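call fold(seq) -> tokens
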Amino acid sequence: MKALIFNALVYTALFAFTAPLTAAAQTNSSPQQAPVEVEADRLDLDQRAGTAVYTGNVEVRQGEMRLRGERVEIQRNDAGELSTATATGERAYLRHQAQDQDGPTEGWARRIIYHVAERRVELIDQAELIQRQDTFKGGRLEYFIDREVIQARSNVEGSEPQRIRMTLQPEE
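ret:
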């Protein structure tokens, strides 16, 4: 009986946090209408605060979007919609494949924050982003998904500045 109740709570928790992500994504391109899948070793859910914290080799997938880290915290806004997903770890990972791109955009950092409504990703501390064959490195990178804009900064709060490095491949 305890296992049945536990399973019901876990499925309710997953649905409560992933349904708003799917609903928000439906306003965008069709690959993002795919269901959200989360795998982790542990889940701590706080319904009142609107947070779910997944720990232990966490992977979040929706269509061509991937977010991985040792810890992923998902927050909802007052309307119950997903507002941010924050992945942390020694090398948290993000992968996004746009429909019109030949290859994926991939990013690594100690902390990655995905702002759902803005479709903006922050890569913080030892940040690296690869888009097509171009590489960007620095203390803090911001990637605006829909506009394909990247902003790089060397400063990271609580850390030494990390110089910006960029390698742009020539057009063929």
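The chain is about 15% helix and 50% strand.
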